[in-house]
Design a protein that fits this description.
This protein is an alpha/beta fold. It contains 24 helices and 16 strands. Strands 10-9-8-11-12-13-16 form a seven-stranded mixed β-sheet, with helices on both faces. A five-stranded parallel β-sheet has the order 3-5-4-6-7, with helices on both faces. Helix 3 packs across helix 4, helix 9 crosses helix 20 and helix 20 packs across helix 23. The longest helix is centred in the middle third of the chain and has 25 residues. The chain is globular.
Length: 557
């Protein structure tokens, strides 16, 4: 990501775990702060053209990802110039869906350290390591993206391979949010992995042990969060791809202590709330139903699903509903069916704690084990998928949604594409083109009935750079729930007139810098309203002036 990151990291320990040395070793990695044009007759423009031509000749997206990773380490300006010129084309290469495969094969394609690797075996040294690490930096990190690799996208426990997701997110912070790459620090906390095939892989570079218990992990996280906040007191810390129980536990524990947020829970909730606001208005216009009368079925009961549902409740609160009334608009399905108070595992007290908020108490003892059963019972206006099960929205269910609604809202959000519940083409075909669609991974536009239909992509990329950047610019003491909701509202208001006419649910990615500035401004404004900002310079500015400040503060290659 930056010269100091690769320069100060570390030796490969005998057990295969990467840990940072207390004193940076100049021989560990070469500095990447080199010129884009080492030869006097070769211009940066030529290097950029050469890179683009080379990428076109590479046969697979993974090979393109690997080559771009090498360019990022060697020449960040060239790397981000390429992304600037073709963000729509390269975002799927540097992030989803290709980053999923890169994380799965991380130890096989490993070319050198990309960030900060901390082992749970060294947990007692974490404060010392980070203090020494910070003292040797010429530029202080502004954004840390940290993962333990336990739930990467929909691909499971990938251990140290989670570093790929931390790097990928920070690539998007720079490309989409304008964060200076020299202020980005990707972190992986190696706590082992429960994926036996990965542990037994002779090329695996992480700890070869089962994953630490939540109790052990919490002890490690306590040390890391305190040490990271002490070493980088002005940084925003983003949690990424922790397994559900840990994700909620860490968010609840640290949210009011540190300047942090969880992208899977809060970022996903924000981007889906923003898209749902647009979709609900279009669906209500088509049906004549009141906005408050939408009914939402979720397939999936993990941290992302619960986080999204809780954030989407704010839509109904905006329509004047109480919290309890808003919650009643949601039905959640996990692997055992609709979550009800009379389901045997719920009665036995075996339901995961994060799901309890959405237990249904109104089913009169009847259970609904399948998605089709729930759709017939609820007659929803919206269907949201976060199940990580490919094809989970079958033809019968989708056609039933179209029978029930003039404009059915269907959001299959699982990443990567191999885990997505429904393809865009099937959604169009099975609803006769009536669907209001947004997915987690990208799909190509499709021409239907003489119109070019563009799928929505509920990609966190539309909000998390603005959340982090806005929190930084505000000097926010913490990232509040109000700031997360403000990011969703700002996103929904970022659609331009042409996008509204085309029926889009989200702004196009080629406007991401403009969108991120608006989101950041919304976050700053809410921080000011809630009294958690410290940057007095931004107080008193009107909305347009605040957006301009966000634009002006963005880094460009």
């Amino acid at each position: 990501m930056t010269s100091y990151i690769t320069k100060t990291l570390s030796s490969l320990a005998t057990n295969g775990t990467l840990t940072p040395p207390l004193t940076p070793n100049e021989n560990d990695a070469k500095s990447i702060s080199r010129s884009s044009s080492p030869h006097p007759l070769i211009s940066p423009e030529q290097n950029l053209l050469r890179l683009k031509a080379h990428l076109q000749n590479l046969p697979t997206d993974l090979l393109k990802h690997v080559h771009l990773s090498k360019i990022r380490r060697e020449d960040p300006s060239l790397y981000f110039s390429a992304i600037r010129d073709d963000l729509t084309g390269l975002a799927p290469i540097v992030y989803t869906p290709t980053v999923g495969e890169a994380c799965q094969k991380y130890s096989h394609i490993y070319q050198g350290p990309e960030g900060l690797y901390l082992s749970i075996d060294d947990k007692d040294r974490v404060p010392e390591i980070l203090a020494e690490y910070a003292s040797n930096l010429s530029t202080t990190p502004q954004i840390l993206v940290v993962t333990d690799g336990s739930r990467i996208l929909g691909l499971g426990d990938l251990g140290i391979g989670g570093m790929g997701i931390s790097v990928g997110k920070l690539n998007l912070y720079v490309a989409g949010g304008g964060v200076n790459p020299h202020g980005c620090l990707p972190v992986v906390l190696d706590m082992g992995t429960n994926t036996e095939s990965i542990r037994n892989d002779p090329l695996y570079i992480g700890l070869r042990r089962p994953r630490a218990s939540l109790e052990e992990a919490t002890e490690f996280m306590d040390l890391f969060m305190a040490a990271a906040s002490a070493a980088f007191p002005n940084a925003v810390i983003q949690h990424e791809d922790f397994y559900s129980e840990a994700a909620f536990a860490f968010l609840d524990k640290y949210k009011n202590q540190y300047r942090m947020f969880n992208d899977d829970i809060e970022g996903t909730g924000s981007v889906i709330l923003g898209g749902f606001m647009a979709a609900a208005k279009q669906a209500s216009a088509a049906s004549g139903k009141a906005l408050k009368d939408h009914r939402v079925v979720f397939l999936g009961g993990g941290s992302a699903a619960v986080g999204v549902a809780k954030e989407m409740m704010n839509f109904f609160k905006m329509q004047g509903l109480t919290e309890d009334e808003a919650r009643e608009r949601f039905w959640l399905i996990d692997t055992k069916g609709l979550i009800t108070s009379t389901r045997p595992d719920v009665v036995a007290g075996k339901l995961a704690s994060h799901k309890k908020y959405f237990i249904r108490n109104d089913t009169e003892g009847k259970e609904y084990p399948s998605l089709a059963d729930v759709v017939e019972y609820v007659k929803p206006t919206a269907l949201v998928g976060l199940s990580t099960t490919f094809g989970a929205f079958g033809e019968d269910v989708v056609r039933r949604m179209a029978d029930l609604n003039e404009a059915p809202i269907i959001f299959p959000l699982s990443n990567p594409t191999s885990k997505c519940e429904l393809s865009f083409s099937d959604a169009l075909n099975w609803t006769d083109g009536k669907v209001l669609f947004a997915s987690g991974s990208p799909y190509a536009p499709i021409e239907r009935d003489g119109l070019l239909r563009e799928p929505g992509q509920g990609n966190n990329f539309l909000v998390f750079p603005g959340i982090g950047f806005g929190a930084l610019q505000a000097g926010a003491k913490r990232v509040t729930e109000g700031m997360i909701t403000a990011s969703a509202i700002a996103l929904s208001e970022a659609l331009n007139e042409e996008e509204k006419k085309a029926g889009l649910l989200y702004p196009r990615l080629d406007r991401i810098r403009e969108v991120s500035a608006r989101v950041a401004a919304g976050v700053v404004r809410k921080a000011q309203e809630e009294g958690v900002d410290t940057n007095e310079k931004l107080r008193g500015l009107d909305d347009q002036a605040l957006i301009k400040e966000m634009n002006d503060a963005q880094w460009w290659p």
